[in-house]
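One record is set out below.
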Amino acid sequence: MSLQPVLETPGLWRTGGANAPGVHALIIGISDYPYLAGGSAPPAERALDNGGLGQLEVSALSGAMFFQWLLEAGPVAGAALASCRLHLAPRPDERARIDEMTQGHYGPADYTTLRNVLDAWSAEMAIPGRTTADPNVALFFYSGHGVEVAASPAILASDVLTQLAADGGANKAIAVDAMMTAVKTYNISRGLFFVDACRDAPLAARLINLVGDDSLKPNRQPARKPDALIGLKSTASGLKSYQVKDETGTLFTQAVLNGLQGPPPEFIPYDTTDLPWALRFGALEGHVKRTVNALLADHSPLAVQAVEPYGNPYNGDTIVANKDGPPLDAGDLPPPAKAAPTLEETVATSAASTLKGAKSLDSKEIGARRFQGAVPAAGDLFDFSIMHEVFGHETATMPWMESLRYLDARTGEQANSKEARIFASHSQQIGGRIVAWLDLAIEPGEGELLWIGAGARDGAINSAVVIARDLKYAMPVRLDVQLDQGEIGWQVTQMSARLADPASADAYMPQSWETLFEAQKTEAFADLASAARPIEVQFDYLQAVLVEKRESPLAAAFATNLLLRAGGLDYLHDWPRNLTNWFEWLADGPVLWAETLLRQRDGADIDLADPQVREALDYYLMLADRGVPTLSHTLTYAIRQADLWRGFVEADVLTSSEQSDLRAALEYIDRASRYAVSGVGFTRFMSAETMFSPEHVLGARKPRAQFMAATA
């Protein structure tokens, strides 16, 4: 049975009666923001400070296109269609086509309407999930404006920043991750989310207090537990999600729909080896990533839109959609023209394409330029000769040299910059933007943290990364730097840090870094499940190496993070607890073990009578001594966990000492969250404040465990 409009309720479509089990979809597309720049509201009602946000070109159309696919799709994620709520805010030049695609039956997308619709959507999926055993699926699609504050992405309703609201409309935003966490408890078999929104405005969002609201609350006693809660976010934290004024939707929507439709003649990314043909989430994820990169390269070779998977739990084998395929004797099977490329070939080809046109330097070329600068005692990052060769000309090199800060993140004092050597670089300039990758060998230093910061001038954004130094051997770190040319010249506008390829390093590095770098690359160009697979296979070996040689606790923390995100709880066992107890200087350990415990339990309640919950809190309290985690995903876990523990600060069940430790732990995390930008690799922070230092972000006092390790 096909979806039919329920005429008395704008935007509601059903295949039958209310509260039936099946796929329950919520589709939102917003192009028209009346109160933002260029909006249709009278000037007096528009936002005085819109944070640089204006009108969008094709987000409402993207929502209508996804709806059109749904009408023709058949079962999704193993369930038949039951209901759809469609809410769009088109601009005038989109309206005619959207009305034709949707029969004009869609509701508005203002904040009050969306809050009510979220409540109705959640109820319609929760009721049949409790009263029947039939498949019950949550499907969510959003295209429109988004921001991110405190590592929490938020989507913006059409009436955001209206001056008719008492608070200036700053509360008309919905927190994405909190919504997905709540939906997990609404008696669903699985959930599938697509969020097409920018995440590049943390500064603007802070200045106007644009923070997402927890619009849905978890069900404390769910009747069933989903086998997958998975999704794709159109871009990573701090980056844009691109769209072009045409009739084909945003780049992300184009890529998603191309994957869902699997067009002939090859029907990629469907698995056509059996009938019916199956589209697995992992294959869709990889296809969307590669397609977005290809589409974006046609418009802006240096632009980056890193599609990001989400899972809690992640399950790359989840079948998203099926195609019947032809009868075996029909003669129109997909042509076996050539063998499909292997995963390794696909990743290698995609990785090579990112360096097309880039200027690359190896360790020999960098060595030939070393110490030719005016300050020969400084490290490579301060070496004018090297950095000039990387950035291309003096006017871009000088802002880097003048603003670069290389500090001990615990004391705020100058660190020895010669302990970070560049062994490779890749850079490219197109127009007024330079993007550079600096591959560093960071020397070991148990318990030490590095703060590498560079800033824009005249009150613009400052960026910094915090990197923990490993135990015994050098560690491969790729420092990503972006400079943009404005009215006052070149300025450093973004910086982040992830793993570099250790194969070209000029220092010994444990084999585990090679495995982890390949996993990072596979996740970037394929899917999270494929990235985690080598870690799953080698995890016992990685543990044994750490136990016997105490070789690289940071590599173990990276591996644990990856397995947590990929849903590999069966491989972790109590390993994160060992990591915590063996290395008291590593702030990531307690958070990783707490996250493992919270994911292992069955219920949704945070009840300290539950031994797993109590142990998770006990380990979180260790942050009072250890401070802020240094891996980006771990910090994101710590920020989310903070909301779980905040209510226990004054609880009688805790001793006064435990309450004090909890306050200290929350203070560390809350302080860092004000500046944090989530992503891959190491923690990164951004601020427009003049006083932007380790003390402001990480706290003033040196945690005891860090101090003991650093001075041992």
User: Anything to note?
Assistant: The mean pLDDT is 88. The chain is about 35% helix and 20% strand.
